[in-house]
Amino acid sequence: MEPWRTSESRAPTDLDRGARLVLLQKVAQDGGPRDVGEWLRTYFDGRFADPADYIDAIETAHGRATAAAARQAMQVAQVARKNTAQALMLAMPDGDFLELLERGMAAANTFGDLPNWWTVEGVNDICKGRGIPFQHNGVRFTWTGEPEVEHEATTPAASFLTDSRLEGARSEFETARAELTKNTETSRKQSVAEACNAVESAMKVLAAEGDVPLDDKRQGASTLFQALADANVVDRNVENVVTGAARVGNRLGRHGAGATPHTVSEEVASATVAAAAVAITYLAKHLP
Questions:
Q1: Tally of structural domains, the chain
Q2: How many CB atoms lie within 10 A of CB 201?
């Protein structure tokens, strides 16, 4: 069984019922399966026998509350003689719903010539219009943040990360975004850790390009920043801006928690990735 891309045992937030309906209507109209149940079957293919099997797996991974909400949604739809497959899609956790769309959208491309409505831009316009912090890149959905965050942080960072010298930081930052899209307890921790790594990688590249000597045994975020500041490569006053994501990563994502396991909320993970984007943009602007 593949790792679950679920959002926790709670009602959807970013992908509310109305937003899901709009997206389903977009991706399941002319050119794709008219029966939205086909999208659910594509999602289940090779992994789950039927909706009951899927819901049982949710209960095992995420507890009774999440499973009960999904079962109730299907039961209400059945009593009302409505589409039970759509009811389940509207009740499933955010990460699963996004993966369902990814798989369905990929399968739709096997049907031959696609009509004019089918464009990634069309789906992304819906996401932007509904305030959904995800965009489809032609293969999968990735986290972008709220519109302001996307405009001021993630988009500029992604642009600078096309620099071949920042290949390592780009890989780590994209992994952070992908893990945040999955939005599970484990993936949020990984997202924070990778965001931290991306900032540190960017600082190491900046140091190398500026011939700034580094201590091989001490290359944490604070030490890296101090080396860059001592060499007048960066402004010492922005230390908290540059090292903020890394500090969160050290506390919640990369080091052992001790007796009490780390818990990373969706809000903290999102803020950390956004902070990393701001830091990367600042650092990249100082590359020669």
A1: 2
A2: 21
Q: Could you list the residue range(s) of the whole structural domain that residue 69 is in?
A: 1-118
Phi, psi dihedrals of residue 143, rounded to the nearest 5°: -70, 135
| SS3 (DSSP) at 265 | coil
What phi and psi values does residue 142 have, to the nearest 5 degrees?
-130, 150
Amino acid identity, residue 177? Answer: R
Which candidate, 78, 141, 155, 151, places its Cα nearest to that of 106? 141
DSSP 156-188: HHHHHTTSGGGHHHHHHHHHHHHHHHH--HHHH
pLDDT tens by residue, 135-161: 888 888 888 987 778 888 899 999 999
The token pair at 84 is 């039970």
Asked, for residue 77, whether it belongs to a domain, the answer is yes
Asked if 1 and 47 touch (Cβ cutoff 8 Å), the reply is yes
Q: Is the pTM of this model over 0.85?
A: no
Helix 266-284 with 239-252: angle, nearest 10 deg: 140
Q: Is 109 within a domain?
A: yes
Helix axes of 120-129 and 17-27: crossing angle, nearest 10 degrees: 160
For residue 246, the domain's CATH number is: 1.20.120
